[in-house]
Amino acid sequence: MRYLPLVLVGFMAAPAIVWAIVATLMVEGSSGNLFGFESNGTVAVLVGFAVVALGLLGGWMMRFIARDQQRGNA
Hints:
This protein is mainly α. It is 76% helix and 0% strand. The protein has one domain. It is built from 2 helices and no strands. Helix 1 (4-25) runs antiparallel to helix 2 (40-73). It is elongated, with a radius of gyration of 17 Å. Keywords: Membrane, Transmembrane, Transmembrane helix. The chain crosses the membrane at residues 44-66.
């Protein structure tokens, strides 16, 4: 139960990672574009926000589960 939030975050990130791999490696004419975007700066900002958001979500869920388990044991 302790690592469940991290597993959930991993499953939420998996489609975006698969999309990025497909867009970068297999879409014709986009081999020079990172994730199908023209600007690498755009990708850096989007990836940064995604990492922060998923990290915050995982941390919040871990704290919520720990607090809920403490209430159940009391």
